[in-house]
Amino acid sequence: MKNSPDVVFDPLEFCDLCFQRGTPNLCETYKANFTKTSSIHFSQQAKLDRLLNNLQVMPRMINRRWNCVMDVSVRKEFLDSLWGIGVSVHTLDDHAKVLTRLYKPEMRKLGNRDSIDLPHLDSWEEFDPKTRSWNQVKVTNKNEKFTAKVSLGNIVKYSNVEGTRYYRINKNGDSVTLVPIERRAAHNIMYTVVEPTIAHWKSDTLGHYALIDLRELDNIPDEILSFLQRLEKKDKRTAGLLVFENDDLDLVRTVLSCIKINLEKSSEAVNMISDKSGMSVQIGNIASERIRVLYDIVKEMGGMIDVKDDHLVISGKRGSTTITFADSDKSVQDGAMTQISVSALEDPSRFSEILFMIKKRLGLLDVSLDSLLAQHWPLTHDSDLQYVIQSAISWYGSNPVLAGKIISENNKLGKIKEWYTKIKEGKIRSSLDTITLGKIIKRLEQR
User: Fold this and answer.
1) Which of 139, 133, 122 is nearest to 155 (CA)?
2) Which of 52, 67, 249, 284 could make a disulfide contact with 57, Cβ separation 3.0–4.6 Å?
3) What pTM was computed for the model?
4) Domain count, the chain
5) Is residue 100 in some structural domain?
């Protein structure tokens, strides 16, 4: 359960309890980012479209789902207006309320330590409420009988190549037994026996944001970590830190208190001002696999590219545009000049917006950018792997040939097969539809 900044959950992965009484029309998957989760009557959709138009927000399809992203400054106005047009929404504030019901900061003491028979000698670990970590269980083998000392009421886990299984230690009469329990239920019990602890947050030097080091939140439940990732402000300048708007700090404090983590302010401050902010980036200093995606897709759209040391000139039916790159947060278009944030080349949704702008401005071929982007996207990080696989799975139902191309183009198939094998062997877990992925791989192997 070690936390890592590279671990990213599907934002809807833990909303099953939220939607037990019905699925809302919209869900706030990330702060000020709303995804359609159920159909909306055409009359209400028309009102929603007018509302977004007034807010100058342009909806788009992400992973074949209707999605709209807006500035945090208009979020409250948007939410207030939704009630007036009868569109239901599940916000991050609503999700926090569900978490406070699931994880209650109650204190329960473990029972005495007692002997228990174990079915295997392999890796057994017991949860430690003081350190919030796992301790190896000392198993003794006598006359081919495996026994260990554990605390009654605690959680133990058994791990092997097939995955990890969780058990609660119960006593029935004189017999101490292992009761199988689901992971989420195990976490619920674990965080009723943990002892209170403290985590610290730091302000940035300008006083705009609150930052928490992920190491301060080691071994928190996936549901809690997922919520924090959905609420945080994404910022590549602060690797290993969770960054929150000051207005959201009370919400963070409330959710962490559910698992008996008290948030206190640190006297230290974090400098978020980059000395390289807005600096021009030479073409040769951009990761070749990222810039290659831009080259290849522009060419497939019928565009011509002239590569210089510090810029590109892309030409089409309606003229040309000059592209420069900068180490900045946003991409900016000014007439025939376009400055692209280097970080946008690592984000499929932002990359797609740039390609759409180029296509529209230069009159290039009207191709499906979503499918092209997925085919050409390189597998540099785990997030790239998740994006490509999810894209293939989404296309499989309507276009299985395209789904196969997405995972096999540009030498991606080997790495994806390796990842799929680890899933089957229980070495890693994923919320993706690995059954459909298996069908795609099998179809490719039968060609």
Assistant:
1) 133
2) 52
3) 0.57
4) 4
5) no
